[in-house]
Amino acid sequence: MPNTNKKENEKKDVNKNVEEVKGELTYENKVIQKIIGFSLENISGLLAVDGGFFSNLTDKLINTDNVTSGVNVEVGKEQVAVDLNIIVEYKKNVPELYQEIKKVITNDISNITDLEVVEVNVNVVDIKTKEQHEADSVSLQDRVTNAVESTGEFASEKFEAAKTGISEGFSTAKEKVEDGIEAVKDKANDDDKEDEKASKSKEKKRVQ
């Protein structure tokens, strides 16, 4: 029994010491935005958060490291305010959807961060059928893919041109060096001949 009481007292002392440690816990806006994105992922009738949190075909999160234009948050030390721009599925009850959005956002942010959600403002920017939304998404995806492919081809062409230019430049430089070497050799031969003539001339003068 004495040992048990001792351990309990030590535990209380540790907890007391931790509480006395100074500091604060803060969250970047991006963290709260990502929590909201995950919270909204499976809400029926919500086609997308305008700005790109959802992949339009699979309803999965994409580019979660990017701050999107469709989710704006104001984060304080204890409270959070949220503004959303959303695209809603046609024939879905929008007020009920709004209540569901508020519920999941409030619960998840509270459970994960202990922050209090004081506002959730939702602006419906568009309403579409699911088929129309998927068709629009495919068109957008095609445009992005084509742009990436075009950029890749352009970069490849520039690389080949640069490589060819370097190769041609090296060949030209090599030819110039070789020409220079030949010129030096020719000059050296001419000098040798002149020296030989001069030497013979001197010999003649000495014997005269």
TrEMBL record:
Residues 181-208 are annotated as: Disordered. Pfam families: Asp23 (PF03780). InterPro entries: Asp23. It comes from the Bacteria. Residues 181-201 have a biased composition (Basic and acidic residues). Belongs to the asp23 family. May play a key role in alkaline pH tolerance. This is Alkaline shock protein 23.
